[in-house]
């Protein structure tokens, strides 16, 4: 079976990400078949806090700045997400509006999975879907651990 050029290109981009540790090349090709590619210029908004469109992205080139509004509604930089990392996965799990704004830190390429495509993946290729769900859960767990560490440091400095 001949794999489409765009699918192969996405699979090759995914090979240079954290997904490559958990997925075989064949599974990456399968996953890439459910995904698209988006390109953003430096400073472009990928999604805004409060948006309801549900999709997640893997950063394959460039980087993404995550901003959160403070009590005065001023945007504050939370972190920068680099190549190989996932953004937007929280909305894929809970369906809630975006909790932060994401902007391109540089010219950025993202491989994108919509909620509809993820649901289709679960039905058509449940083995790959389960691996993806585990990866999302792992990523969220690592970020929660990191956030907890930052919170403890903050609390210690302010006591």
Defining traits:
four-stranded antiparallel sheet; Jelly Rolls; 8 strands; alpha+beta; 5 helices; 159 residues
Describe the structure concisely.
The chain is an alpha+beta fold.
Q: Give the CATH superfamily of the domain at 36-143.
A: Jelly Rolls
Measured by DSSP, the beta-strand proportion falls in 25-35%
Shape: globular
CATH topology of the domain at 36-143: Jelly Rolls
Sketch the major β-sheet. 4 strands, antiparallel
Q: H/E element string?
A: HHEEEEEEHEEHH
The strand order across the widest sheet is: 1-8-3-6
Radius of gyration: 16 Å
Structural summary, described in words:
With 159 residues, the chain is of the alpha+beta class. It has a domain at 36-143: Jelly Rolls (Sandwich). 42% of the residues lie in helices and 26% in strands. The chain is built from 5 helices and 8 strands. The protein has helices at 5-15, 25-32, 89-94, 115-124, 126-157; strands spanning 36-40, 45-47, 55-61, 64-69, 75-81, 86-87, 101-104, 108-114. The strands form 2 sheets. The protein has a 4-stranded antiparallel β-sheet with strand order 1-8-3-6. The protein has a 4-stranded antiparallel β-sheet with strand order 2-7-4-5, with no helix packed on it. β4 and β5 (75-81) form a beta hairpin. α1 (5-15) packs across α2 and α4 crosses α5. The longest helix is centred in the last third of the chain and has 32 residues, at 126-157. The relative contact order is 0.18.
């Amino acid at each position: 079976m001949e794999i489409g050029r765009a699918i192969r290109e996405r699979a090759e981009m995914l090979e240079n990400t954290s997904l490559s540790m958990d997925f075989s090349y064949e599974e990456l090709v399968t996953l890439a078949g459910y995904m698209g590619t988006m390109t953003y210029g430096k400073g472009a908004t990928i999604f805004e806090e409060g948006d309801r469109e549900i999709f997640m992205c893997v950063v394959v080139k460039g980087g993404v700045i995550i901003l959160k509004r403070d009590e005065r509604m001023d945007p504050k930089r939370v972190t920068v997400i680099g190549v190989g990392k996932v953004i937007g996965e929280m909305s894929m799990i809970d369906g809630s509006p975006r909790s932060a704004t994401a902007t391109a830190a540089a010219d950025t390429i993202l491989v994108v999975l919509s909620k509809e495509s993820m649901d289709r993946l679960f039905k058509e290729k449940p083995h790959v879907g389960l691996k993806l769900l585990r990866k999302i859960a792992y990523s969220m767990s690592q970020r929660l651990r990191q956030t907890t560490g930052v919170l403890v440091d903050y609390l210690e400095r302010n006591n």
